[in-house]
Amino acid sequence: MTDFFKDCPRIAYEGPDSPNDFAFRHYNPDEMVGDKSLKDHLRFAVAYWHSFAWPGGDPFGGQTFERPWFTDDMAGARMKADVAFEMFEILGAPYFCFHDADVRPEGATFAESEDRLKEITDIFASKMEATGVKLLWGTANLFSHRRFMSGAATNPDPEIYAYAAATVKSCMDATLALGGENYVLWGGREGYETLLNTDLKRERAQAGAFLQRAVEYKHKIGFKGAILIEPKPQEPTKHQYDYDVATVYGFLKEYGLEDEVQVNIEQGHAILAGHSFEHEIALASALGIFGSIDMNRNDYQSGWDTDQFPDNPREVALAYYEILRAGGFTTGGTNFDAKLRRQSLDPADLILAHAGAMDVCARGLKAAAAMLDDGGLEAARQARYAGWDASDIASRDFESIHAQVSGSGLQPEPKSGRQERLENYISRFV
Question: How much is the pTM?
Fold first, then answer.
């Protein structure tokens, strides 16, 4: 045990009128919504990187957080693991997620880094058995180290491609050993800074080959979880090859992977791509590649990826509506890819940020379930397209359609989309 969270009691549900900061007001994990508990619907996960590895810097200033485990040795990594699982228990969080670089310091060689990851994997396994906390997904950090400044799979140097592939193998092995339910590939630098030195065709082919090998290895080791790609349009690169859900789907189709790989959609990334969160979820569901979500938000005045904790139940409700409409999560869940503001220095801030976000998500999911049960949106949608139910027009050729239209005197009139009415409808539930 550590004393880092010594002033933070375990968070329990006390209801919407509770004045206690250290309480859930809306998230009762055992509350049944339909045929599932809120815990099983939401499948909350804590992100190891933002919660325990991020030092509080920004583009204009360095570290603001002082954590006793911020060292470059394995003693610090072991302390970090102790603190992390204490936090999971305080929150009652059923899952966590990690990159390799979050949980162990970089070694002098690849072999040393891998050995350190294996040591932490064993520590995690023991703690997971003792607490019941599970791994939602693992992943490899292929973007922070200077070797990856020009990408990993898309790097112009084949030796760096090889290093990245070996790293992913190690992280997939760790994820399998810990019973992880998914494995994520986020190409933070799989893009370009300038076209002046970039061969787009070659780099995309490298990325396709890399993903194919990852899928092959998944089957070879018997990993039953999903392989997930996390789309993002830009930042840190000028342009990333996994720009948004539609772009990822086209990429998967090109390399024959549309039945093998799904997407992990982040709210902040959706906004950067010019979409809403619910749009990306709905499109992924329609294409059959929806897997999981990273829940956060951006500051809409900043225009970049600020990774703040969610605080808008209406936005969250619209996202969960599309998730529930598609049948809910299977192997995926709600990972808080969110970080404290760099002025939030207290250990309690880390607990309360997650507790508040869990409440917001619970409010949103319950509103989404109520809307789905009520059926108002689905009825409106069905009515809008009702004319297609008895029409064969899409299967006919243009000549026959032309003959019908020109001979009938057809003069169709537009019908209202009733957007404001539907927006008012949403407000009844949130």
Answer: 0.97
- 307 marked as part of a ligand binding site: yes
12-374, CATH topology level: TIM Barrel (3.20.20)
Residues 263 and 226: their CA atoms lie apart, in Å, by 9
To the query of whether residue 115 is one of the catalytic residues in this protein, the response is no
Q: CA–CA separation, 212 vs 35, rounded Å?
A: 37
Q: What residue type is assigned to position 425 of the chain? A: Y
**Contact in structure between 135 and 97 (CB atoms under 8 Å):** yes
Q: Which letter does DSSP use for residue 25 in this model? A: S
Query: Which long-range CB contacts under 8 A does 163-169 form with residues at least 24 apart?
Result: 163/110, 164/140, 164/210, 165/210, 165/213, 166/110, 167/100, 167/110, 167/140, 167/142, 168/140, 168/142, 168/214, 168/217, 169/217
- Give the orientation angle of helix 245-254 with respect to helix 200-221, to 10 degrees: 80
Task: Check whether 305 is labelled as a binding-site residue.
Answer: yes
Catalytic (active site) residue 99: yes
Ligand-binding annotation for 242, yes or no, is no
The enclosing H or E element of 419 equals: helix 419-427
In the chain, where the domains are located: 12-374, 379-427
To the question of whether residue 230 is assigned a binding role by annotation, the answer is yes
36-62: per-residue pLDDT in tens? 999 999 999 999 999 999 999 988 999
At 293, phi and psi to the nearest 5?
A: -135, 150
Cα dist from 385 to 231, 379, 417, whole Å: 31, 10, 11
- What CA–CA distances, in Å, run from 226 to 30, 170, 181, 378, 384? 27, 17, 7, 29, 35
In this structure, what DSSP letter does residue 310 have? P
What does the block give as tokens for 323? 């998730």
- Bridge-based pairing of strands 239-240 and 191-192 is antiparallel
Q: Among the options 41, 100, 102, 354, which is catalytic?
A: 102
User: pLDDT tens, 279-333?
Assistant: 999 999 999 999 999 999 999 888 788 999 999 999 999 999 999 999 999 999 9
Task: Please tell me which residue in 99, 275, 279, 354 is annotated as part of the active site.
Answer: 99
Give dist(CA 167, CA 293) in Å, integer: 24
DSSP letter for each residue of 316-355: HHHHHHHHHHTT--SS--EEE-----TT--SHHHHHHHHH
